[in-house]
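User: I'm new to structure prediction. If I give you an amino acid sequence, what do you actually give back? Let's try with this one:
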Amino acid sequence: MRQEFYRCLTRRADALFELSDAVLCGDGPVRSIAELSLAGEHRRGHGSGY
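Assistant: Good question. You get back a string of structure tokens that encode the predicted 3D arrangement of the chain. For your 50 residues, that looks like this:
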């Protein structure tokens, strides 16, 4: 299922996939993309979400 989702992402797939991991593995509600970039599941730099 993860591979199918990854193939659906047409641009910036790596960054979007890691952001989705951060959302799904987070402890609570997401307040901002910047906050997600600090999660351990998001291994890229903070600018990759913009």
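You can read the tokens as a compact description of the fold. Here is one thing that stands out. Residues 6 and 14 are 8 Å apart (CA to CA).
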